[in-house]
Amino acid sequence: MKNRDLTSNDVDFLSLGFKARYIIPAYEVGHAVIIKNEKDEKEFLQYAIPQGISKDVPKLIQLKNIKEVKHNKITGYRTESLDGHPMYAMRFIHGRFDNRFFTIAFFTPKKTNDFWRSTYSPVLFKIPDEKNEVGDEDQAEIYEARYKGSDWVTIDPQLMKQRENQNRDPNPWYVMGESACDVYNDFAWDRRRELSAYMSEVFATAISANLTGTFSSQLRPEWVHAIPFIFAPKEMDPQVTSNLGAAPKWVTVEMMVLSHVVRWFANNCSGSTQKIKSRFKMLFDTEIIEEIHYQVSIEDQGHTIELSQIINPFLRWPEARFRQATDLTQAVAVVHAMLNGKSPILTQRLHVNPISNEASFFGSAEKRSPKRKNDQVEEAEQPEQKHARINPM
What we know:
The chain folds into 2 domains: 1-119 and 322-362, no CATH class; 121-316 and 372-393, no CATH class. Helices cover 23% and strands 30% of the residues. It starts with 7 loop residues before the first helix and ends in a 12-residue tail after the last helix. It is built from 9 helices and 17 strands. Helix 1 (8-16) packs across helix 7 (325-339), helix 4 (180-190) packs antiparallel against helix 5 (197-208) and helix 6 packs parallel to helix 7. It is an alpha+beta fold.
């Protein structure tokens, strides 16, 4: 691999260069790679990452005493900083290094009680049907599954650099004929008698989300590219209906983490090969995305790392999983270390603890708080209010 070591300047760029799309980061962060050893035991690995130079970059810290906790079929991780204060992982990236599967867990001191319900699968309609039958009582419509996206696409670093400086014309609003928010609003209005209470709240929250709030704007629908604009092959026009779908902004950011990992390697590691694969499952005959499968691949000297995501845009409480820019920084550092055969600075066998309630995860002294003082969380609690508006006007 013709590359260089990750530097403090890289940490600054990755942590700050795209921060407008992410939520405000914690003041200190850490990571763990969870992987099975030769004895089929789960281990916790941590790799060295240089500190950033800018005072705006969070401190990247070492961790100890990691524990895996399971509750209602959901897995979370709790650990401690070297000085003993608790850290929690509620954001993850899953991957495979050659034939070994692993998970990167991102830790922050911030906790949220929404984590355990942030992965609940949605019930779309009041009476769901295995054949996707929907409609009024007297008439049912059956839709075949629709998909958008592409199989593996190899990234051309030179073309990528050219596209970085190109105007993204025509605008997706023009291509699709309306805004993504209007598409959400029209569907919610047309299906208002059929949507489950869960989905009614999901759509109402998305439609009324404040565009100007750093936190609340993550819930606002926008047009998402299946194949990102800068990665599109020369023969492909990325600004077409077959490459666009409507989903909340946080979904774009979720995909963006993996996209920027391969983008960094395309710019800095000339001996490696980067690929992406993306598929949108569309919601019936609409332009709304129901599910996303997104994968990236980095190959070098006979070794391959794949990172993958399965994204559900209809999570009712996705706030616990909103990305911080340091997730990107640490993901790049981990992939760089693994491909270059660097040894972790810490290896620890993982302890698995079943838990019975949230307090067991967050600590018995850490009680639920109806109001968190920072601006981000106050915005997050606004969706709990009742929304009177869903209409096509």
